[in-house]
Each structure stands twice: as structure tokens, then as C-alpha cells.
Protein 1
Amino acid sequence: MANVLNNLWGGGKPAPSPATVQAADSDFGDFAKGADPTPIDVSPVTHTLAGLGPAQTLRPYTKWYNVHERHSLDEFKVEGLILAVITVVLLVHVIGARLNRTKANKWIRAHSPVLVDEFASVGFAGVSPLSADKSGDELLQALTDDNTQLGDAALREKSLFEFATYATGRANVAFLDVKLTLLKRYNPVMTLIEQGLGFFFDTFEQPQDVVEAILYPFDGKEALTVPGIPGAAELRAKENKSSFDNFVWGLVHKESMKKVRDERYDVSLTFTKDNSKLPTWLTVMSESAEITDLMLTPELVKAAEAAGDLFEYLIVSDQPLVKPKT
């Protein structure tokens, strides 16, 4: 009974010491006293838009005209390549056009003496006012001097590959048209394409330097072409008429014979026959043997042989190039 009362009133057992309490509750020993706070090192991080790459340092400020400090040549590689290609294209264009002009000028210089000797007026300049006031032999001499002084100006440039000249002032001849068609040397890519198409397909003609001369006779129609001069009709004798019997005759290179027949209707009316006076690579296209005996002179044969493969055809015709529809 006494022990019960002692327990109720707090007597009997002594109070437990702090060491005993700590030993009894050893699982919470780490939290008996709070840890001393220590500072945490935080390194500043700069976030970029990508979120993954390293932060870029800002370039120092420079003047607006110091472009070399803000940019480098490596940034303009594509632009440099484009400029290089444009430069090459321009150089090829200029050099090719100059080559064509040089070839055309060489041709007119070589043939100008012949044209001046055979025609009273060469080129597109016409008769100068000083020469127009003269007559007779003085007029002929003045026209010859004008044609000689004309030089390269007798040739007119129609395009970078087409050139033309003109001549008139010869008995029984209205005028002469000469056309030069050269390779497109200013555009080698197009020239190669045309060469390839002409090599693989017969329908495409391979481009080459060509001179085409067309002479138009009066054939008795001077009154319809040249203005009449008072008294000129009486001065012209009947036997000096420019009219002649119409016919079709041609001297053709055999390699060009098929092309000529396909392109010209008038030549298709003739028949082909070899001639003993001609080399094996030339043939005659004529309507009759009598015309061949008259036209095939030794001078013509010699000139054709001298031209060689450069000669394609010489055609005399009174028929149209295109077949009439009716």
C-alpha cells in the first residue's frame, strides 16, 4: 500500500538523469542539437535561347565603319563564288564578241578591193554630197575614193554573230547582199549544245561560219527598180538590155547537195550530173547540158577548187526558194 501511494504522489524512484534519457533515445541523437548553417557556393549561369550551348561573350563596341572588326571574309564565300562566276561569264561574252568582230573585219578587208572594183557603191553610207555633184569619170573616181576610205564601216553589225554589207552600181545588176553568220563565240554553252544536236540529229544543222552572197540582176526591169532619168531610154540600145533567158543552174558540193534540195524549191527542179571538168567532190545541178557548157567556165572551176571544202554551192535561179501553194 505504501508503494502505491509513493507512486501516486511522485515519491519512491529518483528522476532519470539526462545521460540515461539520451541513451534510451539514441535514434534521435543527431537531432538533439541543430547543425551549424554553412554558406552554399552558387556559380552564376547565363542561359541562352538554345538552352544547351555555351554562353557567348558580347563583342566590344566598334565604330560603324569598322566592318572588318565585326565581320570576316569567311562569311561571304557564297557571294564570292557568285561574283567569280559572273566575272567569267562576262569575260567570255566580251572576248567571244570581239573575236566575231575581228573575223568579220578581216573578211571585209580582204574582199573590199574586189567589191570596190566591181561596184560603184559599197556599204550602207550611200553617195556623199561631194561625189553627188560630179559626173562621168570624176563621179566614178569619187565613188572609188569613198569606198576605199570606208574601210571596216562597209560592214554593218546586225547582232553579235550576224554581219552584213551591200553593194550596188554595176551594169545589169540591181544590188548585191552579203550576209556573214558566225559561231556564237560569246556563248560557248549554246554553241556546244547546237554542235551536239547537229551531231546526233540530222534535223539540226551544226553551226559554222558561213558567208552568203545574193546578187539580184535587173533582168530587164530597171524601170521598176531605178528612177528614170530623162534621155536614158534612148541611150540604151536594144542589144544592151539586161534581160536574159531564165533557167536554174547550180554548182554544188556533194556533201551539201541533200541540204540544198531540202531547203530550196528551185534546185529540186534540176537533175544532177557529174562533169569531167570538176573534181570528184563537186557536181552540177542543171536543167540542160547546154546551160552547163555555157556556165562552167575554167575560171569558175579554178575558183571552186581553190575554195575547197569552204565552198558549198553557187546557184543561178529565176524560181522562188519556197514552193508556190497554187
Protein 2
Amino acid sequence: ALMLFFLTTCPIALFYFAIATLNIQQPFSFKLMLISILDFVTTLNYSLNFYLHCLTSKLFRKEFFQYFPCSISIAFRQSNQASNVTHTQRYLTR
């Protein structure tokens, strides 16, 4: 998540820093277009964080599905404690 944060927020920060310190003279339309693109990349951080947490955190998925139940649930049950074999059982909830 930290790497995603840096990848999505550093470009706009570096752009603003470069404009302020290097006094780059570019047409206003070019700056506006670049700022719009970089702002979009920055806002991607929020939506991508959700998917990243869903993919990597079992606790996050468990809590999320508790608050937002869906029509198809996947239950993970450990059937044999000694051999650490995990079976997946899928069922429809109504």
C-alpha cells in the first residue's frame, strides 16, 4: 500500500515542485492538461487501495463481507486440524 501511495502521489508533487523551483515556462493549456492527468492518477490511489486491501487482507475481506453481504458467499472451513488441509465450500445464500 505504501508503494502504491508513492507511485500515485509523487508525480503531482514533483510536478508542482518543478514548476515552483525551476520556473518552467509552458503554455497554460499544457500545464492544465498535465495537472488534470496527474490529479486523476492521484485519485486512483483511493480506489486502488480498496482493491489492494481486498486482495491482500483476509481480515479486511471478512469485515467487508460482514457489513456488505452479497448473494454468493464463500466459506472457508478447515476440515482437518491435524493435517492443516483447507477445503472451500461454495453455497448460495438467500
Protein 3
Amino acid sequence: SSLCSRTCKVLPTTSGAMRPGAQVYVKVFDDEEAKSSGLVHRRIGHLVRGVMGCVVALLAAGCLVAARGAGRPGSAAGAATEAVSLAGAGGPAMVHFSQIVNKTELPKLAGAGGSKSYLKDVAFSKVPGKEMAAGLYRLNAGPALIYTYTYEEIKYIVEGEFHLTDGTGQKVVARAGDLMHFPRGTKVTFETPNTGLGYYIGQRVSPEDAVEVDSAVKEAMESNPAMVYFPQIKETIGTQPYLENEDKSNSFLGDIVFSKVLGKEMTAGLYLDEAGPALHYTYTYEELKYILEGEFHLTDGTGQKVVAKKGDLMYFPKGSQIKFETPELGLGLYCGQRRGGEA
């Protein structure tokens, strides 16, 4: 049986108060099989009445438990939300990339200096002058890859670890669950004792060696910026601010990383959706979303339906009209072609 952690931490909203009806996340300890499989999501409402309104920081080795708090939107509100149709059916269709780690064969990266580097772009946003490419990069043990970024990149570590050194001398061991930001111009040495796999979003055209090295890129390279490290981002679950919306959906969104290249701004963060009324959202920008936990049941303005599960990648073009639902919980790492705070 599982035992709830006795420690809880109240995480207020930006106004200083817990949102009424917010779910409660509790770290529990389960059997070894559950620990090794990652996060487990269970409903144990009768077990957490004594800690209602508390959130315990999520640890990768623990289990995730959700229970409904008081004041949750009732069935009438849910039914009313379900009756709302997508406004102005249409807009571009979302694009679904299923289980990208298992289904993507990574070719060897050309010009990798003898390193055992493998890379493939999987999804693209092709807005002229603001292109984005998302894909997978793997490095196996052997010679280091020495790389200078001619574009901005955000990389989530999917498995293994990367031992990184930048041009400032900063050293980071980026492990599965960590997030890295490599500003344009960053000089990085990639090494690994065994293997490392990263999901990246680059502010660039495809392929990566087609990026034009213009005066702005040269200036960035000369400035020798430092990489930025965000450890274990999934542990922040439950701290994301509530996303205000007319549907009264249980949606939470928190920006983490900001690329501020003028005219090409790019923002990444976590979006958490909990069971309840659906969220209807029209994208005013391009977005790529990698599903980290749970699942999203999605319907776009064309009528297309997708169940996006952990390990899937979604592309939402500008103008796409999306209905977000989840039977229990969905957590996604997004990267949007927008400034911070403009979701």
C-alpha cells in the first residue's frame, strides 16, 4: 500500500491564495516497480482530507497522487462547458507526432568532429524569419562534440545525461528531466559517460547548417553567452499559475525560459491540465508541445481528434482552434513563438 508524505507545502496563486477547487498533489512511496516506472497518477480522495489544499513537491522517484478539493466545478458547470462549440470552426489543423523517441531513426550528425552524435528534425514551424525546428539529439560515449550555436535552442533531457562546458568555463551535468537554454552564440562542449538524449526546439531553419551566419549571429558569438540550466522541471508541478479562461477549466501555465532575440521571441514552459471543464484556446502564435505526463484529448477547428499521450509531440499552427480535455491529468512542455506572459 502507498503512504502519503506527512509534509506538505501550501503553494498559493499569484494573488496569495490557493485557487478554490485546486487539485492536491501528494508524494507517496510505492513499490520498487512503481518507482522505476516514473510517475503514477491515482485518485485517493479519501486519503488526503487531512491535507486538503496542500501541495508536496514532486520527486522523480515518487508517485503522483491527485485528489479533488472542495469547490470543484460541478456537473452542471461541466455540462455547460461541454455545450460550448469551437468558435468559428476552421483554422489550420494541429499536427500529431506519435512517440517520437521510439519512432524516430536518428542519422549520424555530419561534421560532428568524430563524436558519436545523431540528430533529426521532426517538426517545423515555417513562419518566414521566425522559423522553429524541433527534434531529437543523441550523443553516445566517445569523443566530445564541440558546437557553437548560431541560433537559440531549448533542450529537454529525455534520458541519460550530458556533461556540458560552455565558453565561460561553466560546467553542468544535465540529466533526464533537466532543461537547458543555449543562447545564440553559446560555445558548448557535449560529453557523456554513456548516452544522452535530448528533445530540442531550435529557433532556426532546417537543416541546422543552413542557418545564415550574419552580422547579428557573429556579434552573438563574440559575446560568448553562458548556457542556462533549469534542473528537474517536472518537480515544479502544482506551482504553475492558474490560466484565466472563460471555460473555468482547470488549466495552469508557467513560462520558464525566454529567448529574447528581437522579432523572433520564443518562450518555453509547462502547461498542466486537470480533469474538469474543457479549455477552448485559439493560438495567436506557433507552438510545439512535448507531452511529459498523462494525456490530452484534443479537438481542433477542423474536427480532427487526437489523444496525445506521454512521449508524443504536438504542433499547433497560428490560428488553430483547440479544445483541450483530459480524463485525469496532462502535463506538456511547450515552446511558443511569443514573448513571455503572452499566452
Protein 4
Amino acid sequence: MGEVVEAPSRQQRTRVRFSKEIGREICVRVAAGETVTAICTEDGMPNRGTVTAWAKAYGRFRRALARAKTLGGWDHERGGGRRSSYCEATAMEVFARLSLGEAITAICEDPEMPSQSTVALWRARYPEFAERMARARQVQAERFCDLGWEIASAVTPDDAYATDVKLRHLRWTAGTLSPARYGRHRLVEAEATLELGPAAGGRGGSGGPQQQEVIFSVRHFKVEAQPDGTKKVVAYLRDSRTGELRREHPEEGQDNTPTKDGGPGEWLPS
């Protein structure tokens, strides 16, 4: 009878210390298309959490791993080369984690997530992913507003200055993430007026097509002192043809003569 050989029992993996050789091997294999998870299942290799820790601790390894992810994922030309690394499930995970307030840098440091250059490539190449990223940024801005209220509610005389610094930075961050809603300077649409005139070279304007002239009026804002000592923000419209400024909503009895500079006052950045 043949000898029965028992399968060896699974032994606990030993701790793997960082070395340039192991780091280089991981990067080479990732650039060749292998996943970090698959590499970490082999004997002699670190686990996934260790690779994450290495990427945070060693800047050169982090940058090399990011380049390897890019080389192992995206194709150089659309429809040719390596198959695109874009994954719907991964894109949704990036969106979810970003919406929860996690920084994109921290997300991309995860070995199972795409590098920042890959995320930038996805945004440029896939409009649906770019739209998700924009929505996630808006959700982040709302979360920062809620966080600002919590910080302001807990302020004490001892930490009032530090709280003011935090709130200013949160306000700036929310305005950067969602400028249309929380930005300091809101985008406004220029007003246009369409005027019809006689055709060039026409006789009395009959028989030929009429000329069309579009006039754009750009809104400007200025802080003006009032008779009672208070200050008020006043809107002006500039005529694109003459360059003259005129109050948008003049008060009763107020002089609304067009002017080139709008008179004395502090103009707000446009």
C-alpha cells in the first residue's frame, strides 16, 4: 500500500519588515497588472494593512506605488493598449468615502483604491464619474457646514480664538468645494438685451434682413455710506457699449445719472 502523506497545517504568517527589495517587487508586480490583495496572499509578503502602513511611513515607496498603479491600470489611448482600469464599484466607493468627509489623498493611499493620477484620469475621461465627484464635493461642503455649527455651539471664552480660526477655514473649504452655494462671490448671469436695427446699406430698412445687436450688462457691487452712517451694498449695471455704470435699483428721488466710475465708495471684487 502507498504511504499516506498528510497535508501540512497552515502556519501563522510571520511579520515582514520593510525592505527596498520587497517594496520594489510589489511595485513591479502592481505595474504588471496584479492587485495588492493577490500579492499579499503569498508567503514572504506583507499583508494589506502593512502595505498601507508602509505607504504612509515611506514617501518614496508611496510615490512608487502610486506610479505602479497608474502604469498597471489605464490605457495610453482610448480603445488601445491595456484595458482601462475604470471600475463602477470602485468609482462608487470613492464617491461614498468622499461624501462621508474622507480626503481624496487618504482614499488613494488605500492599496485597493486607484492612485490620485488615475482618479484625475477617470474624471477627465468619464463624465459620469466627474459628475459624481462634483456631487460628493457638495455633500462634503454641507457636512463642513454642520461641523461648523457643532464647533460654534461648543465655543467657550477660553477657546474663542481657536474656534474662530477653525470656522474661517471651514468656511473657506466649504466655499472651495461648492462655490455656487457657499462661495464668497456668487456667479451671476449677464443680462442681455436684443435690439433690432435697419440692415446695413438698406433703404429705409425695408426689403433686407435686420441687424441684430446684443447688449450685455454686467453687474458690479459697491459699498456706499448712507446718510445715517450705516453702509449698504449697492448693485450697478455696466453698459457694454458705453462702459457707463447705472444703479440697478435706484431709490425714489435718487440721482441715477450714468457715470464711468460709479462715484465714491468701496468696490467689491467681481
